[in-house]
Design goal:
- By secondary structure, the protein is an all-alpha fold.
- It has a domain at about 20-60.
- The chain has helices at about 1-10, 15-60.
- The radius of gyration is 26 Å and the shape is rod-shaped.
- The protein starts with a helix and ends with a helix.
Length: about 60
């Protein structure tokens, strides 16, 4: 098994590195997409709450 891995690494080193790099890029993209969705939901929630707060403070001023 070790001999097979060594021969694969010698013959297809660049290909293996390219595939691993591609997998890394996909994982980073997925993580950024998930965190962006979470952040967008947080901002929407904040906007809703802040809008309610502003409406309440405007009513107090009247």
């Amino acid at each position: 098994m070790a001999e097979l891995a060594a021969s694969l690494a010698r013959e297809h080193g660049i290909l293996i590195v390219a595939v691993l790099f591609g997998m890394l890029v996909i994982c980073v993209y997925a993580a950024m997409s998930v965190t962006h969705g979470i952040e967008r939901r947080r901002m929407e929630q904040f906007d809703r709450e802040f809008g309610r707060f502003q409406a309440a403070s405007m009513e107090k001023k009247r």
